[in-house]
Write a structure and sequence with these properties.
The chain has 179 residues and is an alpha+beta fold. It has helices spanning 21-30, 54-69, 80-88, 93-98, 114-120, 149-153, 156-159, 167-177; strands at residues 2-8, 12-14, 17-18, 34-38, 44-49, 75-79, 103-108, 129-133, 136-140, 162-166.
């Protein structure tokens, strides 16, 4: 059995309706995934299954999600090994230690285009940083500005399908799969 991490792009089903994590785990079990468990109520799922093609696994989960919850949601899947590699590749360890909620990674389905990542620099405030590592995009957001232009610029249209998690979540997921 291989351990995987699945990240849902959104768990909001409509106004005032969110996916309940117990229902997400039940959905995973319904498609044969073993030992599904969640981390916080933001669409992070860890599970085991036979080693399989990531794209097929993403499609399987997206289809099951739409059937179960009535809405399409992009789901990014990584093997436990790849998740640990992503966490170890954090280019902002100092900032992560100080303010883990201000450092985030946008985990991408396909590597982010270099020109798209470069274009993000124009949206970054003086105290914000952007880096591409292994096709994923790491960002240090400003503590001084409650709304960052950078966040809005990191969209599907510019960069492709992906979803963001802050360092605290990345680290906790790494702990879950590293056991």
């Amino acid at each position: 059995m291989q351990t995987y991490v699945a990240l849902l792009y959104s768990i909001i089903l409509g106004e005032g309706r969110r996916v309940v994590m117990a229902d997400l785990k039940a959905m995973a079990e319904s498609v044969g995934l073993k030992n599904p468990r969640t981390l916080v109520a933001t669409g992070n799922l860890v599970f085991e299954t036979r080693a399989t093609d990531i794209a097929r696994l993403e499609q399987r989960l997206e289809t099951a999600f739409e059937k179960t919850f009535g809405r399409h949601v992009d789901i990014i899947v990584r093997t436990a090994e790849d998740w640990l590699k992503l966490a170890a590749g954090n280019p902002f360890p100092g900032e992560s230690a100080e303010t883990g909620d201000q450092v985030a990674v946008r985990a991408m389905r396909e590597p982010a285009p270099a020109d798209g990542v470069a274009a993000l620099q124009a949206y970054a405030a003086e105290d914000e940083k952007v880096a591409s590592v292994g096709g994923d995009i790491w960002v240090v957001f400003s503590r001084e500005r409650p709304s960052s232009r950078l966040l809005a610029a990191m969209n599907h249209k510019r960069l492709g399908i992906g979803t963001s998690r802050n360092w605290n979540t990345v680290r906790k997921l790494a702990e879950m799969v590293g056991q």
